[in-house]
Amino acid sequence: MRLQVSALSDHHGVAHAFFTRAAPVEERGLLARDIGVSADGFVGLKQVHSPDVVTVEAPWADEARPRGDALVTRRRGIALAIATADCGPVLFYDARAGVIGAAHAGWRGALAGVLEATIASMEALGARRGDIVAALGPTISAAHYEVGPELVAAFREADPAHERFFTPNAAGRAQFDLPGFIGARLDAAGIAAFEDIARCTYAEPEHFHSYRRHTHRPEPGHGRLISAIALTD
Predict the structure, then answer these.
(1) Model confidence over 66-99: pLDDT tens digits?
(2) Where is the signal peptide (predicted)?
(3) How far apart are CA 25 and CA 222, in angstroms?
């Protein structure tokens, strides 16, 4: 029902989960209980593929979700939740400062700086980037992420070095390594540690939802995966 990584589970004071498709998004109370908070403390966003970060001081009603693509807090009893279906769910923790974060990192958000903005917002709450660990949950892999030349050009224009995350294929297009790009951005940001769970949403239909797989072969029950992190006592 849920997956974890040692980068976060080895630390005290935090609970996290990368939920599989066996955990329906609609079962908010079940997901909240599984991570140790009340249903009212399970907060998410209206995600828009932006670099915008919301600092959470108190829970909000689901219908009042703000727009953005990352959340940070130092409040206990609040689970920061991100929804994905191929994009990268990234969870952050600074054990020394007691600050957590969660980011939705698709190619648009990652290129626009949502990961760096999350780290900066954590620092505003007292975190230090040299103490932050981050973990990437199930994400579409390069083997299944074919993109057109316009995306390669957009990344090249932002930084010619980004071209290394694209591998030309026989169809005259390219395979994009989103997990590799996310890891490189976090490494360049100077955080303490990064762990990639290395699970592909597209390649494992029995475990994960995938928007791209659904467009290739429509399947029943298509939805989104939830990833969440919360501070514990």
Answers:
(1) 999 999 999 999 999 999 999 999 999 999 999 9
(2) none
(3) 11
Three-state SS across 15-47?
Answer: EEEEECCCCCCCCHHHHHHHHCCCHHHEECCEC
Whether 219 contacts 33, CB under 8 Å: no
Which residues of the chain are modeled with pLDDT < 50? none
**3-state percent helix, strand, coil for the chain, nearest multiple of 5:** 30, 25, 40
Tokens of 18: 């990368």
Instruction: State the CB neighbour count (10 A cutoff) for residue 9.
Output: 12
Sequence spans of domains, the chain: 2-140+178-231, 142-176
Burial label, 182 (beta-carbon count in 10 A; 0-12, 13-18, 19+): buried
In this structure, what are the phi and psi dihedrals at residue 72, rounded to the nearest 5 degrees? Answer: -140, 150
Under CATH, which architecture does the 2-140+178-231 domain have?
A: 4-Layer Sandwich (3.60)
1 touches 123 (CB < 8 A): no
